[in-house]
Specification:
Elements lengths: L14 H23 L5 H16 L12 H16 L4 H5 L4 H26 L4 H7 L5 H11 L3 H27 L20 H18 L5 H16 L8 H16 L7 H33 L3 H8 L4 H11 L3 H28 L1
Helix pairs in contact: 1-2, 1-11, 2-11, 3-9, 3-10, 3-11, 3-14, 5-6, 5-12, 5-15, 6-7, 6-8, 6-15, 7-8, 7-15, 8-12, 9-10, 12-13, 13-15, 14-15
């Protein structure tokens, strides 16, 4: 299966869906503010995610029939995040590319070991059938794993839950773990912003233009994670050339965090408590194993190459490109390098799935 991004069909949502989405975004913003006040890491995304998950779990009758969060709307904010990551590209990043050969080799080892651990755990402890365990265990390529898993006969409902829980748990646990490691809140919870300076309102139209151009580029060229990578490339090229300086106010990225958090939270719609409890226990074991493996590899590479431990850890953490890019932005941990490693992880995972899925089918 080719690694490509197929944009969702553009359907205008119904009035009840619009009202419900607006309510979720408002509640998500409130949840983000509460999370900020209690110094939660990555507060706007995690606060909105938790708030939305609670709403859809405890108020299922309030959810419009057939409700889905608007993916085109989400894509706009993913493109904004991609543009902000691309704006972090500097000549120094390119000058240091030889240093990344070892860390990319580490990602290669990580993908093989993490997938092996997950397959064993989901198969032996979870009791999943072979295709379901295989595709639940992939450390990346969410949409590709769901599509390939369905074709291979995996339990699509279980597979979808496990894959989304992987992303949600990684995005939640990594900032929390780093805060505990440092002994104080890190990232946006500690007051770290995304702007290089004060941030100007005049930069917002430029940011939107760059994001839009990159989104079109990513979709037309069918780039992997095109809605993020396209804007990243356009913003990086524009920044390196000196044509633009993307320095919007910090609240722009906070709004993007709320949208991403709400879009993740609605994934809990229709999931029963029993199903969620079993999947959550397995996901915690899976993610814990992958994070320990990532931390060990990051520590070894830190001693060997001198690259910052946090950048390496975020490069190995098996969350989504968009979500981990946000974490890296909030921690000021070289987000362009982190995004590059995650793109490589996704491509490698999809290639691995394409090859090994034949073995799964043969067995």
């Amino acid at each position: 299966m080719a690694l490509s991004f197929n944009p969702p069909p553009l359907r205008w949502p119904t009035r009840p869906a619009l009202i419900f989405t607006a309510a979720l975004l408002a509640l998500g913003a409130v949840g983000g503010e509460v999370a900020r006040l209690v110094s939660m890491p990555l507060p706007w995304m995690l606060g909105s995610l938790i708030t939305t998950a609670l709403v859809v779990a405890f108020l299922p009758k309030r959810i419009p029939a057939g409700y889905r969060f608007s993916q085109p709307f989400r894509m706009v904010f993913i493109a904004i995040i991609g543009a902000m990551i691309g704006a972090q590209l500097t000549a120094e990043v390119f000058q240091q590319w030889p240093r990344y050969i070892l860390s990319l080799a580490g990602v290669t080892l990580f993908v093989a070991l993490a997938h092996g651990w997950n397959y064993w755990m989901f198969r032996r402890i979870g009791g999943y059938d072979r295709p379901t365990a295989f595709f639940c265990g992939t450390p990346g390529g969410l949409m590709e794993s769901i599509a390939m898993g369905e074709a291979a006969g995996a339990d699509i409902r279980v597979l979808t839950i496990q894959q989304f829980l992987r992303i949600i748990l990684v995005v939640s646990l990594v900032p929390l773990g780093l805060s505990i490691f440092h002994g104080h809140p890190v990232g946006s919870a500690a007051g770290i912003g995304f702007s290089q300076g004060a941030g100007e309102m005049a930069a917002i139209p430029v940011l939107l233009l760059v994001a839009a151009l990159g989104l079109v580029l990513g979709v037309k060229l069918k780039l992997p994670a095109g809605q993020l990578i396209g804007p990243l490339i356009v913003a990086g090229a524009a920044t390196l050339s000196g044509l633009v300086v993307l320095d919007p106010p910090n609240w722009v990225i906070s709004v993007a965090q709320v949208v991403i958090g709400v879009s993740l939270g609605v994934r809990f719609i229709g999931i029963t408590g029993r199903m969620l409890g079993r999947a959550l226990g397995l996901s915690l074991a899976s993610v814990a194993g992958m994070l320990v493996l990532g931390a060990l590899l990051a520590g070894a590479l830190n001693l060997w190459t001198g690259q910052p431990f946090e950048v390496l850890l975020l490069s190995f953490a098996p969350g989504g490109v968009t979500e981990m890019g946000l974490v890296a932005l909030s921690l000021a941990a070289n987000p362009a390098v982190v995004a590059f490693h995650h793109l490589y992880r996704i491509v490698l995972t999809v290639v691995q799935m394409s090859v090994l899925s034949r073995w799964i089918g043969a067995r």
